[in-house]
Every structure is written in C-alpha cells, then in structure tokens.
Design a protein that fits this description.
The chain has nine helices and twelve strands. By secondary structure, the protein is an alpha/beta fold. This is MBL fold metallo-hydrolase.
Length: 272
C-alpha cells in the first residue's frame, strides 16, 4: 500500500516565511530551507515524504543555485527522511543528526511501530502501515557536536527535545527567536486526515501514534515553553507566531497530560 498517497494528494506547497527561511509541505510533513539565497549558504532541515525528492531539488536549485552545506535531520521517522539518501547523493553532502538518533539511521535499531489504538482519526488507524524500520545512511551520517553547535550555521543551535524519538532535536536562532521544532510539538491534529488536508492550525503535542515516551516528550515541551519563541515552524502543520504561539505553547506545557497524551494506547499502557 502506498501510504504516501493514501489520504492526501496534490499537497506540495512552498512558502517563504522569512528572507532566509522557506518551508515545503510534502504531503504530510514539512522540510525547511534555511539560509541566504544571495550567498547560497544554506542547509536543508529534514527531507519529507518519499517521492517528493524532485520537488525539493527543483525548489532548492532555483532558490539557491548550489547544494546545501549539509542536510540536518530533526529525527529519523519515515516522513522526515523519505528523500535523504537520494538528496545527499544528488548534492554530495553530509547528513547530521543527534548521536541518540544514529542507531535508527545506521541500520542498527528499528523505531517502535505506529500505534493504531490512540484514536483521533484515520491517520492513526493506518499508523501500523507506516514504515518504521531503520535506514542505513552509512558514511553520509555524522553526529552533531555535543555542545549544541550546528556545523557552519553560526546563528543556529540545536536543543535536544526527545520523547517523540530518543534523539529528536529542535533548532533555535536566538537573535530573532525562530524555532524549527520538528515534531516536538506540531500545529495540526496529525491524527485526523481532514485536519491535515485542511491544515487546521492549532498547537498539539507530538503525533500520538508515533510517540513512545510521553514523560520525556512532556519534559521537552516544558523546556521549550520556557524559551522566548517568536516564530515556530513545525514538522506538521503551518508556521505559528506571536501571542497565538506563546499562549498555545504555555497551555500545552501546563496541560500536557490531558491535552497531548492519548487516553489509551500501546505506549500509554506500557507506561502504566
């Protein structure tokens, strides 16, 4: 079954958020193009759903005219690494991820399977069909420095935000308080196909069907909610900013147990 096209078609949309940040929605997941189009110094954050590689290449080549310095992965779930091998080979560039994510990116360990019992919509129901096996990026993949530095991107730092996966990271630029959150939190109810198709904007915790460690996910949200974030681009949904973002993230942190954690589920029950 082609899960990439199971529910959503024709959803390749790109928007420039700031002069040096654009994002593309690849069916159900976003990728970010971060860097100055004039200098051509840029990085790609995540690589979206498989079959969207040509769209990413065409947009990047038109916007920057040269390869990225590297590809940076917030984590290794299928909808964030769907084109990583093809793009890294096409541009001949390295790939970076947190060291805790490397077992899933070097063929050593599979992710837990998707949980269809969390409820909330058809996207959750079909979650067990989503790919969850490890991929092997071989000598392309490198661990990020332990001190939060992102190589060759001086204004940006990463924050370890595990829970959704062990090595999940979010990216922060302190000068303008821009956050690329990955799936630490998202701005759409990802379990609902209708919400995803319509891109209904509201803050949610990480996708429930693919989050196995809720205690750690909560800790990550509490940490992010303490930061002065002006704009957030998430792995699913549309960008959010201002008071809507600040209040929504605070409420999510305060009410995480009732707002983010499903009432039932394979990984909720394992916790109990």
């Amino acid at each position: 079954m082609d899960t990439h096209h199971l529910l959503i078609s024709g959803s390749i949309d790109t928007e420039v958020i700031l002069p040096d940040i654009a994002y593309m929605r690849t069916y159900i997941a976003n990728v970010c193009f971060v860097g100055d189009p004039v200098s051509g110094h840029w990085m790609l954050v995540d690589t979206g759903v498989a079959t969207c590689g040509d769209d990413i290449k065409k947009y990047a080549d038109a916007r920057f005219g040269r390869p990225p310095i590297h590809i940076l992965l917030t984590h290794g779930h299928f909808d964030h690494v769907g084109n990583v091998i093809a793009l890294a080979d096409y541009w001949d560039v390295p790939i970076y991820a947190h060291k805790n994510e490397l077992p899933f990116l070097t063929g050593q360990q599979d992710y837990p399977p998707g949980d269809s019992t969390v409820g909330g919509g058809i996207m959750a129901v079909v979650a067990p069909m989503y790919p969850h096996k490890a991929i092997d990026l071989q000598n392309r993949i490198h661990p990020l420095p332990a001190d939060g530095i992102i190589p060759e991107m001086d204004e940006w730092r990463y924050i370890l935000t595990p829970g959704h996966t062990p090595g999940h990271i979010s990216l922060l630029r302190d000068r303008d308080k821009v956050l690329i959150a990955g799936d630490a939190f998202i701005t759409v109810k990802q379990e609902s196909a209708l919400a995803v198709m319509q891109q209904e904007k509201e803050i949610h915790g990480p996708p429930t069907y693919f989050t196995p460690d809720w205690d750690t996910a909560k800790d990550s949200i509490v940490r992010l909610a303490k930061l002065p974030i002006a704009l957030a681009i998430t792995g699913h949904g549309v960008p959010m900013s201002g008071e809507e973002l600040t209040e929504g993230l605070q409420l999510l942190a305060q009410n995480f147990d009732s707002q983010a954690i499903p009432e039932q589920g394979r990984y909720v029950n394992e916790k109990e």
